[in-house]
Amino acid sequence: MSDLSSFSATVSATTRDSVLVVTIDNAPVNATSVDVRSGLEKALTHAETATDVLGVVITGAGKTFIGGADINEFGKPAMEPTLPAVIEKIENLSKPVVAALNGAALGGGLEVALACHHRIASPSAQLGLPEVKLGIVPGAGGTQRLPRLIGIAAALELVTSGRVAKADEALKLGIVDEIAKDDLVGAAVSAVQNLAGTPLRRTGALSIAPADPAEIETAAAKILAKARGQKAPAEAVRLVTTSTRPFAEGLADERATFIALRDSREAAALRHVFFAERESSKVEGLEGIEARLVSTIGICGLGLMGSGIAVAALGAGYSVIALDQTPEAAEKGRERIIGLLERNLASGRLDQASFDAQKARLSVTASDADLAPCDLVIEAVFDDLAVKADLFQRLDKVIRPNAILATNTSYLNPDEIAAATAHPERVLGLHFFSPAHVMRLLEVVRCAKTAPDVLATGLAVAKKLRKLPVVTGVTEGFIGNRIFSAYRREAEFLLEDGALPHEIDAALEDYGFPMGLFAVYDMAGLEIAWARRKRQAATRDPAARYVEIADTLCETGRLGQKAGRGWYFYPEGKRTIDPEVTAIIEAARAKKGIAPRSFSKDEIQDRMLKAMATEGEALLAEHVATRPGDIDLVMINGYGFPAHKGGPMFARD
Ligand code: T1G
């Protein structure tokens, strides 16, 4: 091995058996920043002319090959050399260039690899073109080279889903040529030596295997339907399905499309979400605070939430001791948990070995004493203060002094629950969203007395559960339900002012919500909100506007879809506008002397967004929410706010 030569701050090379081994080292993910691009260009130029170099290996330092173009550079003037220029140089080099995929090769990273003449992956490598998740399309040849390697149908699915393919799937598809279990670079060096002097397979010059037009048509239609109006997937479909045209023409169209989308509001929104997701677990004052070790989690209350949390914990590798009030209830809880695991097994999400291992890590009991070994206990019992306080007082006597107690309450005050225990500093909230084993969002509630390392532990457990943690302070409904209540109130004001449920729902669906508010309300059932309104009636501000329509619906038995009628009625289960509800709404307007007027979709959307943003501002002012991006993440991941609109706070700006 000759000594190291560096072509830029982030690109260096050694020569190994006359092969130039180029390593990209640009923490944290080897993104193709301008320094990486210029380093690569210099290395390739050197290799082209150096008589003692047979060819080039490109690999990454650390656990990532190349994590993509540098998203931080978006929105700034493009700096030479552009990624497509470097990629073209790779493909057209007179000597072989082999990609040694040591880890994630994503976006521009995979596009670099696709232009190489041969690709070898480590078993842990992950390959993908996730650009559509950022509201853009691959901008450096992905939509044109991938079909040339794996055909249009397979390329269409990968480019428009943005998903990751593991190494073995990539081998099967033909994206990589080999998998090297050890000495990846050594295998790549040998590949260069074997290719030296032979005609090189230049991806851009490959012809595309003919595709079945009907199959492509059907796939494209499904993708467009799922895109719900987003531009990027539609453009990705267009670019991949037209990749049979001359290569240079396709590249030019792809680049122009990428640039137009990159500068769009939709892409800015998705970039905001991308960075917000990485920001949300960073809490001021926790730097350097060690999380406590958690390996056994206790779960109290094995209903829908408790069993979902148990499945999430088992899936993350924790041992679970699940408690319910009686042996029969505990046994029913076990059946519910095992049933969910069996569903995961049947769907292929779990293999048999994982299923058996998870099942073996579950024990159920009706005796508090059995929770003694737990490092963390999460309660998901009936949402009543006395019940929760009593449970925590009992657990105080059972679990170790440094074990943590977490409440999953949605609406109670966790400070009051903590106050019932001897050690409130070890109490926090972990507010899961149902179904808890599916929904990524987890509101981590920082109670008044929560110790910093307890909060750090909550965040560490959230990460291990593969949840998206958002820290919230204590307030009724925390971030999500407080904003949900605000925009539900605004929607009911709109009803009084002249709009109808289906018009409001249509406006929200048009904006990008998968389902309108009143349809969701009917699905969840109206009685929980009704009970809360009755509980609050005594302390409600008499001067504040109060809409009685929902109460009237409940009083007349319209409790939602399960009752066959709520805001809509459901003949044969089909959601239908209910003229009787319209009459109830009209009577409510008349009772307040409101002269109704019609509202456009835009007006409805503006009022609903404003209500969300105003409540978000209040949450920031009260320091319940730390940053606007956190609020956006909660509404996107817990309440169906369309990610390509960025969330209520981003949309407000
Ligand atoms: N650009 C800039 N910063 C990035 C980045 C990127 N592409 N990817 C990650 N980071 C930062 C991230 O913000 C965080 O910063 C740190 O790296 C660790 O990230 C031309 C135009 C690679 C699988 O969409 O999927 O290529 O918080 O916590 O869990 O066609 O990062 O530490 O300050 O996620 O180990 C396409 C995005 C770009 C992949 C690693 N590529 N990244 O996961 O770390 S567009 C992507 C990821 C493109 C071309 C187009 C993941 C990862 P901080 P992390 P991780």
Q: Topology of this structure?
A:
Layout: E1 5-6, E2 11-16, E3 19-24, H1 34-49, E4 55-60, E5 64-66, H2 83-92, E6 97-101, E7 104-106, H3 108-115, E8 118-121, E9 126-128, H4 142-150, H5 152-161, E10 164-166, H6 167-173, E11 178-179, H7 184-195, H8 213-227, H9 231-241, H10 247-262, H11 265-279, E12 296-300, H12 304-315, E13 319-323, H13 327-346, H14 352-360, E14 362-365, E15 376-379, H15 385-396, E16 404-407, H16 414-419, E17 427-432, E18 441-445, H17 452-464, E19 468-472, H18 480-497, H19 501-511, H20 517-524, H21 527-537, H22 549-555, E20 568-569, E21 576-577, H23 579-591, H24 601-621, H25 628-639, H26 648-652
Parallel strand pairs: 3-4, 4-6, 5-7, 6-8, 7-9, 8-11, 12-13, 12-15, 13-14, 15-16, 16-17, 18-19
Antiparallel strand pairs: 1-2, 2-3, 9-10, 17-18, 20-21
Helix pairs in contact: 1-2, 2-3, 3-4, 4-5, 5-8, 5-9, 8-9, 9-10, 11-25, 12-13, 13-14, 18-24, 19-24
Bound molecules: (2S,3S)-3-hydroxy-2-methylbutanoyl-COA.
How would you describe this structure in keywords?
653 residues, N-(1-d-carboxylethyl)-l-norvaline Dehydrogenase, domain 2, 2-enoyl-CoA Hydratase, Chain A, domain 1, alpha/beta, 3 domains, 8-stranded mixed sheet, binds (2S,3S)-3-hydroxy-2-methylbutanoyl-COA, 26 helices, 7-stranded mixed sheet, Rossmann fold, single chain, globular
Describe this structure in words.
By secondary structure, the chain is of the alpha/beta class. It has 3 domains: 5-262, 2-enoyl-CoA Hydratase, Chain A, domain 1, CATH 3.90.226.10; 296-474, NAD(P)-binding Rossmann-like Domain (Rossmann fold, 3-Layer(aba) Sandwich), CATH 3.40.50.720; 480-623, N-(1-d-carboxylethyl)-l-norvaline Dehydrogenase, domain 2 (Orthogonal Bundle), CATH 1.10.1040.50. 47% of the residues lie in helices and 13% in strands. The protein is built from 26 helices and 21 strands. The strands form 4 sheets. An 8-stranded mixed sheet has the order 14-13-12-15-16-17-18-19, sandwiched between helices. A 7-stranded mixed sheet has the order 1-2-3-4-6-8-11, sandwiched between helices. A 4-stranded mixed sheet has the order 5-7-9-10. Helix 16 (414-419) links the parallel strand 16 (404-407) and strand 17. Helix 5 (152-161) packs parallel to helix 8 (213-227), helix 9 (231-241) packs antiparallel against helix 10 (247-262) and helix 18 (480-497) runs antiparallel to helix 24 (601-621). It is globular and about 90 Å long. The model has no long low-confidence stretch (mean pLDDT 96). The structure holds (2S,3S)-3-hydroxy-2-methylbutanoyl-COA. The site of (2S,3S)-3-hydroxy-2-methylbutanoyl-COA has 26 residues, from strand 7, helix 3 and helix 11. (2S,3S)-3-hydroxy-2-methylbutanoyl-COA (T1G) binds at residues 28-29, 31, 64, 67-72, 83, 104, 106-108, 111, 130-131, 134, 136, 138-140, 142, 275, 278.
